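A.,

Following up on our hallway conversation. C-alpha cells first:
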C-alpha cells in the first residue's frame, strides 16, 4: 500500500512538472467553471498571478462581450463532454488582466475524477500566426492592386492607401526626383479632413539631404527603420507642420525604402498613434511592400516610356510618309509637265525641258537622301556603325549650302552665316554632315518664334593639317529644361516643353550625334529654358 501511495504521489509530481513545462497555458475547471489549476504559462500569457486565478470562473479570461454566451456553451459541453483538439476552425479570443485581447486556439479534454467531471483546457496564443496570415493577405492584396496600376500616380496613391488603417494611421510616400531632391508625392490618413490638411502642408520636404532624418537615413542605407520617437516621425520642421504632428498624435513610425532592383526610388513612412506599434514583423512587412511598390513604379515608368516610344514611332512614320509623299508628288508633276512639253513639240535643247529635268533630278536626289537617312536611322537603332564615304570636304561649303536651302523655306527667320578664314577642310562624309547641319538648322527654326535670328558659324581651331573644324548653330527660342539637357541626344527623346506642342520624332539629334562621333568628333549643347540653345560640333580634320 505504501508503495502504491508512493507511486501515486510520484506520478502526480511528474504530471504536475510536465504541466508546468508545457508551452501552452493549461487550466482545469469544474462544472461550475471554477478554475482549480493553472500552470506557469497561464500566468505568463494572461498576466494574472496563479493565486488570483484559482477559484475564479473561467470567464474572467474572456472578453466581456463573450462571457455570457460562453457560460451557455460551457453548460452545453458538460451535457455531452468530448475531446476537442486545437485548430478546428473556431475564431476564439482571450483577455489579459490588462484588458488587451488576443486570438487563441483551445483544446478541451474531459477528466473523470473522484471529485466529479473536470475539464482540462490547453490555450495557445496564435497572435504570431494571425499576424503572418494577415501579412500574407495584405501583401496579396497589395500585389493585386499594384499590378492593376499602370501609371505612376496611381501606383503612388495605391501605395499610400494600402497600409491605412491596417498598419498605420497615416502613410506618406516620398520619391527622389531626377535632380536628386526628395518630393512628397502621396499622403493618406484614416481621417479624411486631416488628410486634406496634410496634402496642403507637406507639399515640400523640409529635411536636408545628408541629415540623420529617418527618411534620408533609409535612402542612404536602403534598409527600413522604426522608432517610438514622435519627434523623429519626419513631418518637417515648420511650426505648421509641427502642429500637424501634434494633431496626428504620432507615437511611433516605420520607414521603408521603395526599391526596384538595386535602386532606391524613395520611401514609405508609416505613422501610428500607438506607442511601440511596430515590431520586427511589421518591419519585414514594410520592406516587402516597398519592394513590390518599387517594382510597380518601375513598371509604370517602363510602360510610360513604351507608350511614348510607340507614339514617337507612329509620329515618325507619319512624318516620313508625308516627307516622302511631297517629293514624289513633285516628281509626278514634273513628269506630267515633261510629257505635255513633248506632246506639244518640245525637242532637243528646249530650255523648258532642261528646267523640268533639273527639277526632277533635284527631287530624286532629295528622295535618295531621305531614304539614306531612314537607312541610317535603322542602323542607329540596331547599334550598327555607318559606312562613311570620306573625301576632302569644306565645312564652310556644307554650312553655306544648308543655310541657302533653308532660306527658301524659313521665311519667318533671319539666317546669319559667319565663316572665319581659313576654312576648315577635312576628310569627311559630305552627305552625312549635310544631314547633321540640316537637323540642327531645322530644330533651331522649329523651336524659335518667327522673326528671331538663327546664327551659324564655322571656324578652324588649330592648324590646317591637324586641327579641328568647329560648327555652331545658335537660336533664341524656347530652350531646353536644365534637368533634361543630358537626354537631348537620346533616341526618341523629346523635351517636356515641346512634347505635344511641336511635331518631331526625337531621332534627328540622336542621328546627328551618331554621325559626328563616327567622324571622331563631338557634339554638345548649351541651353537655357526661355533663352535659346547653342549646338557645337567639333570634327577632327583627319577623322
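Then the amino acids I'd put at each of the 543 positions:
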Amino acid at each position: 500500500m505504501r508503495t502504491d501511495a508512493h507511486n501515486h504521489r510520484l506520478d502526480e509530481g511528474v504530471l504536475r512538472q510536465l504541466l508546468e513545462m508545457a508551452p501552452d497555458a493549461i487550466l482545469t475547471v469544474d462544472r461550475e467553471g471554477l478554475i482549480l489549476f493553472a500552470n506557469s504559462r497561464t500566468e505568463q500569457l494572461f498576466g494574472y498571478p496563479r493565486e488570483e486565478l484559482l477559484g475564479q470562473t473561467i470567464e474572467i479570461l474572456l472578453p466581456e462581450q463573450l462571457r455570457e454566451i460562453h457560460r451557455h456553451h460551457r453548460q452545453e459541453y458538460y451535457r455531452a463532454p468530448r475531446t476537442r483538439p486545437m485548430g478546428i476552425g473556431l475564431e476564439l479570443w482571450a483577455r489579459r488582466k490588462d484588458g488587451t485581447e488576443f486570438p487563441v486556439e483551445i483544446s478541451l479534454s474531459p477528466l473523470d475524477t473522484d471529485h466529479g467531471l473536470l475539464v482540462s483546457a490547453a490555450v495557445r496564443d496564435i497572435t504570431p500566426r494571425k499576424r503572418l496570415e494577415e501579412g500574407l493577405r495584405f501583401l496579396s492584396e497589395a500585389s493585386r492592386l499594384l499590378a492593376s496600376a499602370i501609371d505612376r500616380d496611381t501606383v503612388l496613391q495605391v501605395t499610400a492607401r494600402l497600409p491605412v488603417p491596417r498598419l498605420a494611421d497615416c502613410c506618406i510616400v516620398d520619391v527622389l526626383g531626377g535632380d536628386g531632391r526628395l518630393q512628397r508625392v502621396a499622403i493618406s490618413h484614416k481621417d479624411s479632413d486631416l488628410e486634406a490638411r496634410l496634402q496642403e502642408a507637406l507639399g515640400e520636404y523640409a529635411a536636408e539631404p545628408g541629415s540623420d532624418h529617418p527618411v534620408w537615413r533609409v535612402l542612404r542605407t536602403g534598409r527600413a527603420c522604426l522608432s517610438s520617437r514622435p519627434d523623429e516621425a519626419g513631418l518637417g520642421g515648420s511650426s505648421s507642420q509641427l502642429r500637424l504632428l501634434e494633431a496626428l498624435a504620432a507615437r511611433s513610425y516605420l520607414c521603408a525604402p521603395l526599391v526596384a532592383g538595386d535602386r532606391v526610388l524613395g520611401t514609405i513612412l508609416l505613422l501610428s498613434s500607438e506607442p511601440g506599434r511596430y515590431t520586427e514583423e511589421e518591419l519585414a512587412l514594410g520592406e516587402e511592400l516597398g519592394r513590390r511598390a518599387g517594382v510597380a513604379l518601375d513598371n509604370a515608368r517602363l510602360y510610360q516610356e513604351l507608350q511614348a516610344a510607340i507614339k514617337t514611332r507612329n509620329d515618325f512614320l507619319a512624318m516620313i510618309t508625308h516627307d516622302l509623299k511631297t517629293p514624289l508628288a513633285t516628281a509626278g508633276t514634273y513628269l506630267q509637265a515633261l510629257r505635255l512639253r513633248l506632246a506639244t513639240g518640245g525637242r532637243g535643247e528646249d530650255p523648258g525641258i532642261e528646267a523640268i529635268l533639273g527639277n526632277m533630278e533635284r527631287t530624286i536626289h532629295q528622295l535618295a537622301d531621305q531614304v539614306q537617312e531612314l537607312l541610317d536611322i535603322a542602323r542607329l537603332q540596331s547599334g550598327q556603325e555607318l559606312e562613311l564615304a570620306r573625301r576632302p570636304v569644306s565645312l564652310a561649303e556644307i554650312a553655306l549650302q544648308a543655310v541657302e536651302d533653308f532660306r527658301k523655306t524659313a521665311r519667318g527667320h533671319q539666317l546669319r552665316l559667319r565663316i572665319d578664314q581659313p576654312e576648315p577642310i577635312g576628310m569627311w562624309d559630305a552627305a552625312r554632315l549635310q544631314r547633321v547641319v540640316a537637323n540642327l538648322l531645322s530644330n533651331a527654326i522649329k523651336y524659335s518664334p518667327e522673326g528671331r535670328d538663327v546664327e551659324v558659324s564655322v571656324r578652324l581651331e588649330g592648324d590646317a593639317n591637324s586641327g579641328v573644324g568647329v560648327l555652331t548653330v545658335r537660336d533664341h527660342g524656347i530652350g531646353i529644361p536644365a534637368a533634361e539637357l543630358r537626354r537631348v541626344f537620346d533616341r526618341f527623346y523629346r523635351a517636356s516643353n515641346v512634347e505635344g506642342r511641336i511635331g518631331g520624332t526625337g531621332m534627328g539629334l540622336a542621328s546627328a550625334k551618331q554621325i559626328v562621333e563616327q567622324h571622331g568628333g563631338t557634339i554638345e549643347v548649351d541651353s537655357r529654358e526661355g533663352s535659346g540653345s547653342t549646338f557645337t560640333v567639333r570634327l577632327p580634320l583627319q577623322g
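Confidence is low (pLDDT under 50) at residues 5-10. Curious whether your intuition agrees with the design.

B.
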